[in-house]
Amino acid sequence: MPFSLDTVRSEFPSLEIRDDGKRRIYFDNPAGTQVPSTVIERMCSSLREANANLGGAFSTSRAADRVVSDARQAMAEFLNAGSADEIVFGQNMTSLTLQLSRSIGRALSPGDEIVVSRMDHDANVEPWLLMARDHGLEVRWLPFNTETFEFDSSALDDVVTPRTRLVCVTAASNLTGTLNELGGLCARARDRGAWTYIDAVQSAPHVVTDVQAMGCDFLVCSAYKFFGPHQGILYGRREVLEGLTPYKARPAPDTLPWRFETGTQSHESMAGTAAAVDYFAWIGREMAHASGSRREQLTAGMELLLDYEQSLSRRLIEGLTALDGITLLGISDLNALDRRLPTVAFRHAHKAPADIAAALAADNVFVWSGHNYALEAARALGILEAGGAVRVGPVHYNSLDEIDEFLVVLEKILAD
Fold this sequence. Notes:
By secondary structure, this protein is of the alpha/beta class. It has helices spanning 5-10, 37-49, 59-79, 93-106, 126-135, 155-159, 183-191, 211-214, 238-243, 267-287, 294-321, 353-362, 375-380, 400-415; strands at 18-19, 22-23, 25-26, 87-90, 113-117, 138-142, 164-170, 195-199, 218-222, 232-236, 326-328, 344-348, 365-366, 368-370, 389-392.
């Protein structure tokens, strides 16, 4: 069958919740999505049947081993990693990045340079600034064009020097929704002897991720942004990970990926992460008629969902630009929707972002306001000290009708 919104929505029990009889419109998805029943069920099963630590001879421990192995393999397929050993789990993307920055810092020398981006969430900025401070590194900044909301083609070449050892950049902005093409950037960085560290937290729920085609050295994402539980995932290229010094307890294994996984992980969250990957594959089988491997199925499913999400982007951008006093902070060309996600940020000429978000919440429309941790992007756009922006983020379980309802409510709020 083709894409069926009703079928999709039936998989997400939270979409049926009412507050005092009023429906919820979940447009807060860039900060965390709702989860399908299969994710909930897989997590419950893990807690019920495999609630033990790893490596034991008894049945619950063996079941926990399978949960972890299955999750690692699922994420290797989701990211197209060369091996499941290149997948590291952690509490969240921020914790993983802070942890790995400690190991990467040991591999660098005073005077070496790192590049961080003005477009990024602070989780891919501050850990590297702290690392630079502690190891005597030089920081160079990759700017973005505040009129196009994209990186200029020459931007990386302008900041990378023979001393550059690490380039940290986002796959998609969590504020403006800009979707970056990173294959060329990673190739240019590698040609200059620099590693690349990619924040794919925002892109992973929407577009197919292929770390081998991208050519990155590291990539991080968060399962709770792609319809899974609160769980962080790191991909690291094997030869790079093997060359880093891990910070770990002495009894912990020295082999990959265990050397970078501190302490006991959340096995139930790992189970839920695998279920989220399987959800995309289910979409591919049932709605895109894909067969073959799980990777092929989830790729077909995500491509189908992205086509639908672009219709949401179009309706949302068209509706916002028709309202008086609205300024969009992101790509608004309807012929360039392939270069952005459905995450849309805006400001109003007279009403503060926090006041708009609060008024929408009173009508059970869930959005975020502020800088959304994109400190450098908000500063570059001149909105950091002015309350940031209102951020609206539909995903594939949202409907065009919900976009229209949001626009009606917003127009009333702005008219008051």
